Amino acid sequence: MKFRKVYYFLPLVFSLFQLPILVEAKSINEPHWMKRQQLMASHLLPPMRTKLINYKNLTYTTGHEFYDTPIELIDENGNTLKYREDIKPKRHYQIKQVGHPKLVSKSIWFFRPGGSTEEVNSDNIWTSCTAEYPCQEITQSIVDNIPPYNKPQLWIAPGDYQMPFDKHQNQALLSLKNKMALIGRSTDFRFIAYDNDRPLLEGALIWNDYTGHTGSDGSIENVRVKTGDAPIQVLNDFANINLFSTRSLTLVNVDLEKKHQSNGENIQAELVSVYDSNLSVEGEMSNNISAEYLLMRGSVLNVKGEYTRNLIINNGLVSVSDSKLQTLAESCYSTAIEVSDVMAITLRDSSIVMESKSDCPQLAPPLRGLINYQIDNTPYPHSQNVDLGNLELKIKATDASVVGIETSTDSLSFNKVNFNLESLKGKVYAIDNSKPAELTFHSQASLIWIKSPIFAAMHADSAPLKINNNSTSLSQCKYNQQAAVNC
Question: pTM for this structure?
């Protein structure tokens, strides 16, 4: 089975690329970071590392190996911290317990500005790019000669790195192998890189191997990546991207920046997992992530352009938590999240903010926070559900009409949802459902505030919408400056 990713921009419609659906719903596994990582000495933020001065050899490198030590901390309230996700900046911690160093990885190649410039080939690959003698440049030859077993990693010290120039693609890019990871580290490689100490990689990164009939799995942590206009061929099509994989990509503590003139995006892959990252894309036609399955937590996405999306998800599922999606629309052809034929959409503890200031043609489509449509012959035509919890959706338009959610699903669930939808010259609807649907308010109350001098309504008349107001205190709907009423 194949699918086609499409930007549904009016009046322009164009295909991005085709690839087989390889990830089945029952086989989806959460990436390692969603299962919580055991707290290790190398995870500590820079201000905390001085506390380790009395402990020797908690983190160290030798050859192509790295050793790390499990630790436990105590916060200001006496709580014990055992996981990486529990550490917060600008907090004070004390060391409670220190374990014993253990081998974490034995297949690492090290890079640092001012390192060795010796040519690397298959004969000297195991004596090159070691912790003691890191390489200066990340070259395609080095990557091609790294043995593919033991999940090889490229550890990159702070600095700026230009990706190698591919004469066939006529662009700067690095092709990586299946299960290969790029990881930003401190200058001595002992700790994770944070903030501006993360290395900056200029050029596209692609994981385009195939293992049998499955694609590549790639991961990238603690780095910054940016490209300009850099269309490259992936599979049988061209894409103007920062990151691409034929199967999955996992991002942790990553900044992506994409600036282009025509159409471009940050990520294309089947399964995308994003944690604690910032993605920014700017150009005429822009999108941050195209995928089948998206798992995202603790991240910020920004998009700016005339025809924009933050997310385009097909044939899978969407799970977003503790994240911010921001859109600055320079015309009226923008949607924050566009999904089609997915099993479920879950948005929790997050915000979606859109703003458009431009004049709009009379027949321009509305600005939409979420568009969710479905084809009846999909494998799961009745299993869709839109589940929103502790979500803020704010859309402000000048000329454009506004729709909070445009959907063809039959079930919507709201828990502590805050809609603030406004157009100065267009109509505003909270919900536009193309077939009969049921909206249930539950648990904590929601507030739906709709503002328009032209027309403001809870839902369009496309199809009936049944509302179950079952929240603990009744959820409220407010129209313009009128008093709020029970939805």
Answer: 0.89
